[in-house]
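Bench notes, afternoon.
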Amino acid sequence: MMNVPGGNITIKGGIVTANDFIGGNNRENIPGFTFSGGVIFTPSIKNKDDKENWEGLLFEDEQGRIYGDEISLNTNLTIPSGHTLTIENGQKLTLDNCTLTLEEGATIENGGTIDAQTITYHSNYGDTEETRVQYTGKKVSVPTDLFTRQYHTFKGWYADADDETDEAIEKVSETKDLYAHWTPNTFTLNQLPAPTLTYGTKMDNITLSTLLSEGAEADCGQITFSVSGLPTGLECNDGVISGTPTAASTDEGSKVTITAEAANTSKATLTPTFTVAPAEPTLAFDTEPYEITYGESGVNIQISSNSTGSINYAYYTNQECTEGRTDNQPTNAGSYWVKATIAKTTNYKGKSVTTTFVINKGTITVTPPHKRSNPLQRRSP
């Protein structure tokens, strides 16, 4: 409350804001009020006895009007949202080297004249565009903080809503519509460590959101992922790569493309290579060790494996399988080692296993000749 009992209040310029009414609580205490320039914002004026002589802009609550036929504004003024300034027919408001800016939701009901250039700023995004109007009596630098756009950075003001052929406008001295242009905030994807993948073995899941740069979704909005080129057996659902490879890689592996796209349309891409290694095959003799006796028929060696590679057998005279190699099954008595080697396939590595192969000495069987009678031997009488 502005209250000067028994005195006068004189306002000659500038902007005055009163949080309560101007005047006293009773008629006797209301001072005289002289208003000869400037701008006043107040809930109300109690004493308007001299209003015919007032000059300036007066806002009572949210309703503003001009007092005087021709008023010159010489200080920058922003009319708050929800406020209305009325200029009556025959009144003239001149801007003297200053600006008059309307916040969103502020209006001017102009039945008279505003002697100034009019700049209309357009937010230039969304279904419902915001605008700000600024009147200026001088060449002004355009503001950079009129609007904010979620997940975007202000780029500059342009004369066209879409075209950026001309340079951004920084100063204006004429009536003009200006359109804000925006740049989507960006993010990056951290490098993906080469995953360890093996044919037939379930991979460790990769959660792609862990690759996002810090604050990515806060700056750019929700981010979704799309992935192409994964090895067979793998898939990406809800930003998680998982699965079991169903084929080992050939050549240099699979070039995978990971694309992350944010709500503000910014994108980031990674192109890692996924390599699926052949699996270690199972390989085991059905029977071991093998043991026969010299002279018996050869052994039918059987082996089991999950690989379809061809199997080769070789026989050696030492456990390290470095001496006395033969590809044919031995027939002489002795101790041998048989080595089974399965060849590499697309999905399985090659592998070898060994076991002992013993041919025991046979037993010699001697049969004495049959005893014959002597034909010359006489029988006893």
